[in-house]
C-alpha cells in the first residue's frame, strides 16, 4: 500500500515537473517583464493580424500587397537575431525587432506600445510554433569590440565584399541590384530583393555598427543572406562593416574613404 | 451701429462655427491604411479616436519611418484620399421653444412648447486627402461638403523631423489645434453629443470672436515629441480670426500650447497627463465706414484665455478621459461693450470666468466594439453683469452610445452606431427663464473608404 502511494506520488511529481518544464519553455521574459500570451492575443488581433494572419502564418489580408512578405511565425524563423543561424531567437531579439521595426519593409516600429505590451505580444507570437516549447535558443554570438575605421580596413572590406560574393546579390555599389538579385527567393519561395546598402539611414536590423556586424555573423534566417561567421574572422567582418558604410557615403556623393580606394570589381 | 453690427457678426460667427463643427464629422483615414496595409485598429482605439501608435504616426507627419513613407514608394495609381459619410436616422427634441400660440398667427402670442423632429439624414461628406509630399514633408487637405454649405475645414503642410529630430516639426495653414482630446476625432456624432462643449463655450452675452479651442485655426505650429510619443509638446501662433479665412476680424495673434507626458503603470498600461492654454486678444469694435464695420480692422483688443489640464487613464479594457478648463474673458468682451466706450459698462461689470470639464469613459470589448459614455459640465464662477442670473451659461450634458465595426480592414471601415445625448442649459428658455433641454437620439452607419 505504501509502495502504491509512493508510486502514485512519484508519478504526480514527474508529471508536474514535466508540465513545469514545458511551462518554463513557453515563458517569455525581457528584463524584469514577463509576457502574458492572452493579453498578447488581444494586442495581436488589434495590431498584427492583418499582415501576419490569424494563425500567425503570414497570410493576413494585407499580405498579398506587401513586399517583403510578413513573417510566418509558425516556422519560428526570424531574420534579426543575436543567435546563430538556424537557432531560435532570444526573447530580447524579438523585443528589439518589434520595438525597432524591420527597415524597408511593412513592419513599423511598435515602440509606441508599452514595454509590457510588446513582451505580451512576444509571448503570443511564440505560441504559434511548437519549436518554442521544444527547443531553447542558442547562446548569442559574441560581438568583439569594433576596431577603428581606416583606409586599410575599408580596402580589406572592399576585397572581402568582392571575394565573398556579396556583390552578386547586393551589387557592386551595394544598391541591391547584383546579377543574382532578380532570381532570389525567401524560404517560402517568394521573390526577395537584396537590401540596398547604399541608401537610407538604417540597415535591416538596426542602425548601429554592432547590428550590422551581427547581421553578418548570424545571417538573416528565412532569406538568402547567409551567416559568415565561419567564412570570415571577426576582424574581417568589421572590415566589411567599414566598407559598407562607405557605400552609403558614396551614394550620397560625399567624399569617402572608398572613393580614395580602388573600387571593388 | 458699430457695436450692434459687431454683436451681430460675433453672434453669426459663433453660430456658424458651432454648426459647422456640429455637422462636420471627425475623420479616420483609410488612405493611410491602404498605404501601409494596416487595419484601422492599429492606429485607432476605435476610429476615429487615436491610440498611442496612431498618435505617434500622426506626430511623425503620417510616417512610419520605415523608408516607405515618401510617395515615390507607392504605386502610381495610389491616391491618398478618403471619403466619409454618415447616413443616419435621428430624432431631435427641444423643450421650451417659444412658438406661436396659433401656428401661423404671429399675433396670437408666444408660448413655450416642445419641438420634436425626426427622420433619415446624411450629415455631409467628409473628404480628406493627406500624406507625404516627400520624405518628412506631410500635408493634409480637408474640404467639407455639407447639405447646404461647403468650405475648407483644414489645409496645411508640415515640415517633419527638422534637423533630424522628432522634437522639431513646423506646420502652417489651417489646422486643428493640438487639443487635449481631439474634437475632430470624437467618437460621437449626434447633434447634441458630438461636441465637447467646453471647446466651444463663450458665456451668454459675450462677443468674443474667439469661440473656442475646438475650432480649426489659421496659423503656424511648432511641435515635437519623444521617440515613443510619451512626451509631447506643441506651440501654435494663430491669427486671431477664429479660423475664418479672409482676415475678417483682427490683425493680432493668439498663442496656444499643449504639453503632455505619458507614463507606464505596471499592469495598467500607458497613462497620460497634460496641460494646455490658449491666450489671445479679441477686438471690441471695428473701424467703420458709414457705420458699417470694415472687416479686418478690429480695434480695442481685450484679452481672454482658456487653460486647464487633462488626463487619459487606462485600466485594461476600460479607459477614461478627464478634462478640465478654466476660462476668462475681459470685461468688455463679456459685456459686449466697445473698449472706447467704457461708460457703457454696467455698474459692477466684471470679466466673466467659468470652470468646466468632462469625463468620457470607454469600454473596449474588442477592436470591433466600443461602448461610450460622457458627462460634461460648465459652471459660471463669475457672471459678466451683476444683473444676470448667477447660473446663466451653466450647462450639463450626458451622452451614451456604442460603435460596432462589422467591417474594419485596410481598405474601408463601416461602423453601426447608436447614441443618445441630453443637454441642459440652465435658465436659458427664452420665455420662462427655465432650463433649456435638448434630447438627441441617433442610429445609423458611419463609413469611410
Question: If you had to describe this structure to a student in words, what would you say it looks like?
Answer:
The complex is a heterodimer of chains A (265) and B (449). By secondary structure, chain A is mainly α. Chain A is 44% helix and 2% strand. Chain A contains 11 helices and 2 strands. A two-stranded antiparallel sheet of chain A has the order 1-2. The longest helix of chain A is centred in the N-terminal third of the chain and has 25 residues, at 2-26. The relative contact order of chain A is 0.13. With 449 residues, chain B is mainly beta. Chain B has one domain: Porin, CATH 2.40.160.10. In chain B, strands 3-4-5-6-7-8-9-10-11-14-15-16-17-18-19-20 form a 16-stranded antiparallel β-barrel. Mean pLDDT of chain B is 90; it is low at 1-26. Classes of the chains: A mainly alpha (265), B mainly beta (449). The A-B interface holds A 42, 45-47, 49-51, 61-62, 65-66, 101-117, 199-202 and B 36-39, 41-42, 51-53, 55-56, 64-68, 227-229, 264, 266-267, 269-270, 366-367, 409-410.
* Overall number of strands of chain A: 2
Shape of chain B: globular
Uncertain runs of chain A: 17-25, 254-265
Inertia-based shape of chain A: globular
Helix content of chain B: 10-25%
**What structural class do helix, strand and pairing data of chain A support?**
mainly alpha
Q: Secondary-structure element sequence of chain A?
A: HEEHHHHHHHHHH
Which architecture of chain B does the CATH hierarchy give at level 2? Beta Barrel
Identify the strand order in the major beta sheet of chain A: 1-2
Mean pLDDT over the full residue set of chain B:
90
CATH architecture of the largest domain in chain A: Orthogonal Bundle
Radius of gyration of chain A: 22 Å
Amino acid at each position: 500500500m505504501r509502495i502504491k502511494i509512493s508510486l502514485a506520488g512519484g508519478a504526480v511529481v514527474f508529471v508536474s515537473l514535466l508540465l513545469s518544464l514545458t511551462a518554463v519553455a513557453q515563458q517569455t521574459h525581457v528584463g524584469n517583464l514577463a509576457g502574458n500570451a492572452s493579453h498578447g492575443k488581444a494586442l495581436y488581433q488589434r495590431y498584427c493580424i492583418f499582415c501576419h494572419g490569424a494563425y500567425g502564418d503570414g497570410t493576413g489580408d494585407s499580405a498579398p500587397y506587401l513586399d517583403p512578405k510578413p513573417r510566418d511565425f509558425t516556422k519560428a524563423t526570424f531574420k534579426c537575431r543575436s543567435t546563430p543561424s538556424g537557432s531560435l531567437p532570444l526573447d530580447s531579439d524579438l523585443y528589439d525587432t518589434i520595438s525597432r521595426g524591420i527597415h524597408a519593409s511593412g513592419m513599423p516600429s511598435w515602440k509606441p506600445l508599452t514595454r509590457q505590451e510588446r513582451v505580451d505580444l512576444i509571448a503570443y507570437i511564440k505560441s504559434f510554433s511548437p519549436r518554442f516549447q521544444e527547443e531553447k535558443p542558442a547562446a548569442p554570438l559574441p560581438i568583439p569590440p569594433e576596431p577603428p575605421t581606416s583606409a586599410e580596413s575599408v580596402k580589406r572590406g572592399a576585397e572581402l565584399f568582392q571575394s565573398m560574393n556579396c556583390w552578386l546579390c547586393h551589387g557592386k555599389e551595394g544598391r541591391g541590384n547584383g546579377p543574382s538579385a532578380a532570381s532570389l527567393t525567401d524560404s517560402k519561395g517568394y521573390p526577395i530583393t537584396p537590401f540596398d546598402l547604399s541608401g537610407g539611414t538604417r540597415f535591416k536590423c538596426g542602425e548601429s555598427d554592432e547590428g550590422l556586424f551581427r547581421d553578418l555573423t548570424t545571417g538573416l534566417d528565412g532569406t538568402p543572406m547567409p551567416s559568415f561567421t565561419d567564412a570570415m574572422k571577426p576582424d574581417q567582418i568589421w572590415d566589411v562593416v567599414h566598407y559598407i558604410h562607405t557605400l552609403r557615403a558614396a551614394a550620397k556623393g560625399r567624399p569617402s574613404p572608398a572613393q580614395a580606394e580602388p573600387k571593388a570589381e | 451701429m458699430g457695436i450692434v453690427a459687431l454683436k451681430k457678426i460675433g453672434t453669426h460667427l459663433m453660430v456658424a462655427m458651432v454648426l459647422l463643427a456640429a455637422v462636420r464629422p471627425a475623420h479616420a483615414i483609410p488612405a493611410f491604411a491602404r498605404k501601409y496595409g494596416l487595419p484601422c485598429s492599429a492606429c485607432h482605439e476605435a476610429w476615429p479616436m487615436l491610440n498611442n501608435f496612431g498618435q505617434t504616426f500622426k506626430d511623425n507627419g503620417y510616417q512610419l519611418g520605415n523608408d516607405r513613407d515618401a510617395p515615390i514608394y507607392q504605386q502610381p495609381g495610389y491616391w491618398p484620399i478618403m471619403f466619409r459619410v454618415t447616413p443616419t436616422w435621428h430624432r431631435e427634441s427641444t423643450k421650451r421653444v417659444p412658438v406661436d400660440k396659433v401656428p401661423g398667427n404671429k399675433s396670437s402670442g408666444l408660448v413655450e412648447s416642445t419641438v420634436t423632429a425626426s427622420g433619415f439624414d446624411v450629415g455631409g461628406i467628409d473628404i480628406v486627402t493627406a500624406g507625404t509630399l516627400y520624405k518628412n514633408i506631410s500635408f493634409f487637405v480637408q474640404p467639407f461638403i455639407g447639405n447646404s454649405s461647403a468650405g475648407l475645414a483644414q489645409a496645411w503642410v508640415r515640415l517633419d523631423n527638422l534637423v533630424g529630430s522628432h522634437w522639431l516639426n513646423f506646420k502652417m495653414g489651417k489646422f486643428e489645434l493640438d487639443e487635449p482630446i481631439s474634437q475632430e476625432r470624437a467618437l460621437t456624432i449626434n447633434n447634441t453629443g458630438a461636441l465637447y462643449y467646453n471647446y466651444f463655450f463663450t458665456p451668454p452675452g459675450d462677443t468674443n470672436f474667439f469661440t473656442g479651442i475646438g475650432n480649426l485655426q489659421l496659423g503656424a505650429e511648432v511641435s515635437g515629441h519623444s521617440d515613443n510619443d510619451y512626451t509631447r509638446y506643441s506651440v501654435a501662433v494663430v491669427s486671431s480670426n477664429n479660423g475664418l479665412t479672409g482676415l475678417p476680424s483682427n490683425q493680432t495673434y493668439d498663442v496656444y500650447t499643449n504639453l503632455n507626458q505619458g507614463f507606464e503603470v505596471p499592469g495598467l498600461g500607458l497613462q497620460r497627463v497634460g496641460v494646455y492654454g490658449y491666450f489671445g486678444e479679441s477686438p471690441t469694435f471695428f473701424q467703420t465706414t458709414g457705420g458699417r464695420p470694415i472687416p479686418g480692422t478690429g480695434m480695442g483688443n481685450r484679452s481672454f484665455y482658456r487653460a486647464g489640464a487633462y488626463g487619459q487613464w487606462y485600466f485594461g479594457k476600460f479607459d477614461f478621459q478627464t478634462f478640465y478648463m478654466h476660462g476668462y474673458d475681459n470685461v468688455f468682451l463679456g459685456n459686449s461693450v466697445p473698449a472706447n466706450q467704457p461708460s457703457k459698462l454696467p455698474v459692477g461689470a466684471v470679466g466673466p470666468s467659468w470652470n468646466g470639464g468632462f469625463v468620457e469613459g470607454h469600454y473596449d470589448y474588442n477592436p470591433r466594439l466600443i461602448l461610450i459614455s460622457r458627462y460634461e459640465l460648465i459652471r459660471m464662477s463669475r457672471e459678466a453683469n451683476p444683473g444676470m442670473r448667477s447660473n446663466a451659461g451653466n450647462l450639463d450634458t450626458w451622452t451614451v452610445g456604442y460603435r460596432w465595426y462589422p467591417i474594419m480592414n485596410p481598405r474601408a471601415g463601416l461602423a453601426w452606431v447608436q447614441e443618445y445625448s441630453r443637454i441642459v442649459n440652465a435658465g436659458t428658455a427664452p420665455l420662462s427663464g427655465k432650463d433649456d433641454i435638448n434630447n438627441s437620439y441617433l442610429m445609423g452607419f458611419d463609413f469611410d473608404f
